[in-house]
Amino acid sequence: LNVTTLEDVPSNPIIKNVSRISASPTMLYVQWDYPNVPNGLILYYSIYCCDLTRTMGESSDSSMVATKSTNLCSEWKVLGNDSETIIHGLLPYTNYTCFVTTNTSAGEGNPSMNLTAQTDETLPADPPANFTAHVLNSTSILLQWSKPTFLNGEILSYIVSISPLDVFILNADTMEYLLTGLEEDTSYTFEIYASTKVGNGPSSKVSVTTHYAPPSAPPESVEVIVTGSKTAAFSWEPPTLEVQNGPLISYILVLSELQFNLSDIEANTTSISYVFTGLQEYDSYSCIIAAVTPAGIGPFSLPVHFVTFEDVPSAPPQHLTGVAESSTVTLSWFPPPSIDINGNLEYYLVTVAETETGQLWTFHAVKPDIIIGSLHPHKCCSNQCHFPIPIFGLGCTTF
Asked: How far apart, in whole angstroms, are the C-alpha atoms of residue 32 and residue 16?
């Protein structure tokens, strides 16, 4: 008589090996031995792999016993005649604790001992977090970031691409980078990658524009055309685009008078031309021009010198005196004030009138004195001259 006892839950199997699979960051290889006491026909094996680090942190105690009740454990079933399998769908670069149970018709047996292994590395799953670019001034930008949320490996470096400049490779412990010497009022695009031994993960981008700055060069091609004795017209070209450092909002012109210590004249215009009026006749001037952005005034151009046209004197000769003799009179005077001559003094115009008849005579004098002769003696009222041809008027001319 042959009698077979009923099946029971088997004893625990012997887990032999849990190891990573190279270049397969979501897989682990698991191997075990048949249980010493199967207690029945083995229907299948249950392999449990638990991501304990997500609950205990990367420094967790790997000797902690994993249980099926752990909500971060997953189960894979393998037919009873197999003793090894490859577990799929795991997280890269993650420590897993695995164990095996045996199943008969009577149920699931006790688990094997735990073995721990780490999946292989791969590319970072996401870009560096919190990537920001802070514009410090017109030529400096500070980049800052933090580690990716899912590293998927050991971060070896951060790669920062700066368009249109260059690429920088920074150490893994670097979380900020200061860029200096940039161009004013220029847009830059920054892109950052985290890199493991496998390669670069996805990138994060940010674009910013440096602040305005005063122009770094003056207006170009400054020209002046003297249009009269009191007017001068200026024209120029803006600084080249690469040195404007922002939108040009105006130009400042400073006109300096060079002979009589007159006050400077300052003008402001949004155009690239300007006409000065009300200038001093036949006077020397110099003019400098600067471009302006919202950040301030740029450098001034080299001085442009010019002289206004001549004009008639604006004041008569001064301190006219006369010395009378029997038939002549000697006249002398001083030139007009220098600021009123308005040109190169060519000669003086002396006008003489006879008081009784009103007859006029005109003389030219190149020096500030003249002797007029052939006069006839004559008596006048008191305090009047004794000559029939007294002085009537005196003027001068510049051309």
From this structure: 5
